[in-house]
Amino acid sequence: MFGIMRDGSLRFMVPFFLFLYSYSNACTKNSGSSKATGSIPGIATFVAPYDGQVHFVPLPNGRMQINGSVSGLPPNETLGVHVHETGDISNHCLNAGAHWSFVKRAAHGGPKTAYRHAGDLGNLQTDSDGVMQFNLDYLPVYNDPSHGFIGLVLAITDHEDDLGLGRNEESLKSGNAGMPLACAVIGRAKAEDKNI
Asked: Which intervals hold domain Superoxide dismutase copper/zinc binding (predicted)?
């Protein structure tokens, strides 16, 4: 190494190391973008007897903002909210399948549980008018191939989710959250959507 410095080759090494530093710094800054995570802005529109829209907005830090509202739900209730594995809302949402998980052996959990289904969003409360407000700061599961849940189903269940803590087999599958009450397919949002 000292031989390189003596013969003057160091002047060629300095620009090389500066290039490496700037390249790695640029990669670090861009690693949290929606392009890096592959997430696409999405929207779920609920129809009668329910009404409302829920937006899925990728953030530059790699997280996702899930916001919006759904009305027509039972008032003053805590209900489970999940993304399901298909885009089929027929048969009263039952064809939506299980909670979205691209990891074969993942168990059900809450949104802050490290090892969980990618579609486990936890619980939300309805107000006295039966309106559920969404304002979730969600950390997607690493390498989720759904690109932000596009083409999957967002469902609200008729019971509270026990977040996988119910100590029984159904808790580890669905959080004992009951049956789907309302559901909508998450589609690709328009670029001019004000919530994106």
From this structure: 51-186
